[in-house]
Specification:
Blueprint (H helix, E strand, L loop, with lengths): L9 E5 L4 H10 L3 E7 L3 H4 L7 E5 L8 H9 L2 E3 L3 H6 L2 H6 L11 H5 L1 H10 L7 E2 L9 E5 L9 E3 L2 H14 L8 E5 L4 E10 L4 E14 L8 H7 L5 E9 L6 H18 L6 E9 L5 E7 L14 H7 L5 H14 L9
Parallel strand pairs: 1-2, 1-4, 2-3
Antiparallel strand pairs: 5-8, 6-7, 6-8, 9-10, 9-12, 10-11, 12-13
The structure holds adenosine monophosphate.
Adenosine monophosphate binds next to strand 6, strand 10, strand 12 and strand 13.
Length: about 350
């Protein structure tokens, strides 16, 4: 177990993504809270009274400096990773940060690397879209993705080798990638995208389905507002930049399978990336017209879609009978494991 005192724990995260929800949840569970905040965002975060301590930095890069890590450790902080950590740092850097992390920091590499990601989803026996390794094999509508947690930025759709080459040229000119090796091609799944939020507690070996959302993406979600004839005239190529999230409840008959998928994922994660996936994760995919879920991605940590449910979701209300956000669920797990001297089960 990492060297951490059991009293006066402080919950700490980077000021971005879902930090407000995480620290609000920590405060609801009576923890002290600490935000690593870029100076340019201080005016935003100073408004929230549940943030006890703000550590100002010029940029998040400072997180990689040893003296800064020492400072966080001295404060007795548990660090909660989220999407901004993954988009800011390489997996090597993340693994080296000498601060106790909530959850399994080693699985974040499996989220950032699309080949490892596919391996874990296949090992979990989830339905996954066909991955296309060779651009000459593109024979249907496919989506081309960058590595890492870019929130859909830079994605484009292709239907043959020529449209792939054209899209790659644009991304190289924009400086987003250096070669076509930097992308991953996946079959485009027809249906409706849904993001399933889970929490796994190693203490009771239970998967909890906490909520669901759909993303509001620009400009793909705006395209339907233009008549189809004019879409052709302006030659729109949709982009998938996440702007926000929309709440969702599922048909009740889908829930059984939702739980099964979460449990299969937890089992595979334990096998492939010990200690597995304590804490929040998200299965991200498309429900096809026959109600089958095809998982195109996972996030191995809290997702920003959970920001919808600061007061709890319909699903967390039914499980806990009180307002339980994902941020608060994390804090609850820390509180309980700490009182049982089992922090080693949830920290890496
Ligand atoms: P991601 O950031 O990878 O979760 O995906 C961003 C967006 O791209 C999703 O919200 C979907 O709208 C879309 N998307 C990603 N993968 C697929 C896929 N295989 N088929 C259809 N849509 C996809």
């Amino acid at each position: 177990m990492r060297n951490i005192k059991l009293k006066n724990l402080e919950i700490c995260t980077l000021g971005s993504h879902c930090s407000l929800q995480v620290l609000k949840g920590a405060k609801d569970e009576n923890f002290s809270t600490c935000l690593i905040c870029e100076k340019k965002r201080y005016d935003l975060y100073k408004r929230y009274s549940f943030i006890d301590r703000i550590l100002l930095v010029d940029s998040f890069e400072q997180m990689l400096e040893k003296p800064f890590q020492q400072r966080i450790k001295k404060l007795n902080c548990i660090f909660i990773p989220h999407g901004t950590l993954i988009s800011s740092f390489s997996p090597d850097d993340i693994e080296k940060i000498d601060v106790p992390f909530f959850g399994n920091r080693y699985i974040l590499r499996w989220e950032a690397d699309r080949i490892l990601k596919e391996k874990l989803m296949v090992a979990a026996k989830l339905n996954v879209p066909r991955a296309i390794r060779d651009k000459n094999d593109i024979d249907r509508l496919c989506i081309v993705k960058l590595h890492g947690a870019a929130g859909g930025r830079g994605y484009f759709t292709v239907w043959d080798r020529n449209s792939f080459d054209e899209g790659i040229k644009k991304l190289i000119n924009l400086g987003s990638i250096s070669s076509e090796k930097d992308v991953y091609i996946q079959e485009y799944v027809h249906g409706v995208p849904v993001f399933l939020h889970y929490f796994y507690s190693p203490l009771c070996n239970e998967v909890e389905f906490m909520g669901a959302d759909r993303r509001y993406e620009s400009d793909v979600d705006g395209i339907a507002r233009i008549p189809s004839k004019q879409q052709l005239n302006v030659n729109i190529e949709p982009t998938y930049n996440v702007i926000g999230n929309i709440p969702l409840v599922l048909r009740e008959s889908l829930l059984e399978e939702v739980y099964k998928m979460g449990e299969k994922f937890v089992r595979a994660a334990k096998k492939l990336v010990p200690p597995g996936i304590p804490g929040p994760f998200c299965l991200e995919g498309v429900y096809t017209k026959d109600g089958t879920f095809i998982t195109f991605e996972f996030s191995a940590r809290i997702v920003a879609g959970t920001n919808l449910y600061v007061n709890g979701s319909p699903y967390s209300e039914m499980l806990f009978g009180k307002e339980m956000s994902m941020g608060r669920r994390i804090a609850t797990e820390i509180r309980i494991t700490n009182s049982n001297n089992q922090l080693n089960k949830i920290l890496t």
